[in-house]
Design brief:
The protein has about 230 residues and is mainly α. The protein is built from 7 helices and 5 strands. The protein has helices spanning about 1-40, 45, 120-135, 165-170, 175-180, 185-195, 210-220; strands at about 50-55, 55-60, 165, 195, 210.
C-alpha cells in the first residue's frame, strides 16, 4: 500500500510540475515573445492597422466603414440611412447583422449575401444601388452615364467589410466630392491618384483605393470635421 501511495504521489507531482512548466512556457513566455516580436517588427498591423485623423483613431484600414448623415431623430431606428455626400463612399455592405453601438461600423457579423446572379432580390438591390449612384454623383455639367458605374459601386464584397474601392469608382465620385467641398475637381482627382494602390507585387489582385485613407486625406485638405 505504501508503495502504491508513493507511486501515485510521484505521478501527481510529475503531472503538476509538467502543468506548471507548460503554463509558464505556453501561457506566459510564448505570448510575451510573440507580442514582443509583433510590436517590434509589425506594430502597425499588430495594433489593428489603425489610421488616425486629428489625433484620434479614425478606424482600421482593414475594415470598411460607412459615411452617413446623422439621423434627424436619433431614436428612430427605422429612418433610412442617408450617405454624407461630402465624403467618398465605400461599397454597399450587406452582412448578416447590424449593431446600434457604433454606427460607423454597421455590420455586426461579416458575410456575403449568398444570392445567385439571377436572384430577383439581388437584381433589385443592384438596380436600386445603380440608380442611387447615378443620382448622387451626377453634378451640373457632369452627368454619370449608367455605363460608367463599376460593379463594386453596386455590389458588396464577400465579407461585406471591404475597405477598398476600385479607382474607377473613386474617380466617378470626384466631381460630387469636389462640388460638396468647394474644391477644384482636378485637385480631388489628384488626391484619388495619390491614394491608388497598384497590384500587390505587380500581378496579384487589382488596383484599389482605401476609402478611409482617402477620406482622411480629404479631411486634411478641407479642414472639415465629422
Amino acid at each position: 500500500m505504501n508503495t502504491s501511495v508513493r507511486t501515485t504521489a510521484r505521478l501527481l507531482w510529475a503531472g503538476l510540475r509538467a502543468l506548471l512548466v507548460l503554463t509558464v512556457v505556453c501561457g506566459v513566455l510564448y505570448p510575451l515573445a510573440v507580442t514582443g516580436v509583433a510590436q517590434g517588427l509589425f506594430a502597425h498591423r499588430a495594433n489593428g492597422s489603425e489610421i488616425t485623423s486629428g489625433g484620434k483613431v479614425a478606424g482600421s484600414e482593414l475594415i470598411g466603414q460607412s459615411y452617413l448623415l446623422p439621423r434627424k431623430n436619433p431614436s428612430d431606428t427605422t429612418e433610412p440611412a442617408r450617405p454624407d455626400l461630402r465624403w467618398f463612399q465605400p461599397r454597399p455592405s450587406r452582412g448578416l447583422g447590424t449593431n446600434t453601438v457604433n454606427t460607423q461600423y454597421r455590420l455586426l457579423l461579416s458575410g456575403a449575401t449568398n444570392r445567385s446572379g439571377d436572384n430577383k432580390e439581388l437584381i433589385d438591390w443592384v438596380r436600386s444601388a445603380k440608380a442611387q449612384v447615378i443620382k448622387d454623383n451626377s453634378t451640373p455639367g457632369h452627368p454619370v452615364p449608367a455605363s460608367a458605374v463599376p460593379p463594386d459601386a453596386v455590389t458588396s464584397s464577400g465579407s461585406g467589410l471591404d475597405p477598398d474601392i476600385s479607382p474607377a469608382y473613386a474617380r466617378l465620385q470626384t466631381h460630387r466630392v469636389a462640388e460638396r467641398n468647394h474644391l477644384p475637381a482636378d485637385r480631388v482627382r489628384a488626391l484619388v491618384d495619390a491614394h491608388t494602390t497598384g497590384r500587390t507585387l505587380g500581378f496579384i489582385g487589382e488596383p484599389r483605393v482605401n476609402v478611409l485613407r482617402l477620406n482622411v486625406a480629404l479631411r486634411a485638405l478641407t479642414g472639415a470635421g465629422g
